[in-house]
């Protein structure tokens, strides 16, 4: 049975979300983030990922729509809900002149569940413990992200909302980030969830359970990764057959030896008669295909468009 067919609790539920900035319009009729999993938010630059995460984390309040948390439609983003949510983002979350030591002190004052010892351990593990007296503004982007991660993972939370946590991190630290995200979920025993945006799909695939693909301010595809990998296939064939694939394949690449592209599994029958090989695509290949199908100049658009 598909994961989506099982009864699913949601950690975030939202309806009729709208936010307009000039030409850009965020418009999401329904949003459900499953409880107990890591959900990735993927989309092109300017798709609206940060806008959505800012709304859900309470950074942006000037939007229309309803958001509720932790499976209770009446539970809005008040202080007790904020206490259960950890946020990391690309902006300057801490005042630039604060030192790491001050971040530790202030986190202890702001959040009841903050554990100083855990924070120090994480700073040590992430290699920033020798900079405790350094101000936030003097930290590199990567070290600033490590500081945010250390602070947020030292709290007692049930939901992490993370805007591009992998972007400023080096490959080793990205791997550590995935391990820590996985540990966070496992230690929560089904009660903890993560919602994060990323452009580093390949690096983050092993920590992604559920995926939302966003384009032009709305969600164009979503599902558990294992379900998406059944709904889409990677097709490879001879160069001489490439033109006969018609519009069935998306994000096709071709050279003199052959072609490969992604299509809906249900469309495979439209390639009958061609000498093709079929493989399971990576999440990255699926996302790129969906994003290409939804770019402004695409001949076909979005959910229900045939892709
Ligand atoms: N404060 C703001 N004022 C005006 N326009 C804004 C503001 N914040 C975002 N926008 C616009 O909203 C749109 C969505 O931006 P957003 O940052 O949410 O996209 P994104 O998917 O996170 O992009 P990226 O992947 O590049 O970080 C963009 O067109 C952006 O220019």
TrEMBL record:
<keyword id="KW-0067">ATP-binding</keyword>
<dbReference type="Pfam" id="PF00005">
    <property type="entry name" value="ABC_tran"/>
</dbReference>
<dbReference type="InterPro" id="IPR003439">
    <property type="entry name" value="ABC_transporter-like_ATP-bd"/>
</dbReference>
<keyword id="KW-0547">Nucleotide-binding</keyword>
<keyword id="KW-0813">Transport</keyword>
<dbReference type="GO" id="GO:0016887">
    <property type="term" value="F:ATP hydrolysis activity"/>
</dbReference>
<protein>
    <submittedName>
        <fullName>ABC transporter ATP-binding protein</fullName>
    </submittedName>
</protein>
<dbReference type="GO" id="GO:0005524">
    <property type="term" value="F:ATP binding"/>
</dbReference>
<dbReference type="InterPro" id="IPR003593">
    <property type="entry name" value="AAA+_ATPase"/>
</dbReference>
<dbReference type="InterPro" id="IPR027417">
    <property type="entry name" value="P-loop_NTPase"/>
</dbReference>
<feature type="domain" description="ABC transporter">
    <location>
        <begin position="6"/>
        <end position="241"/>
    </location>
</feature>
<dbReference type="InterPro" id="IPR051782">
    <property type="entry name" value="ABC_Transporter_VariousFunc"/>
</dbReference>
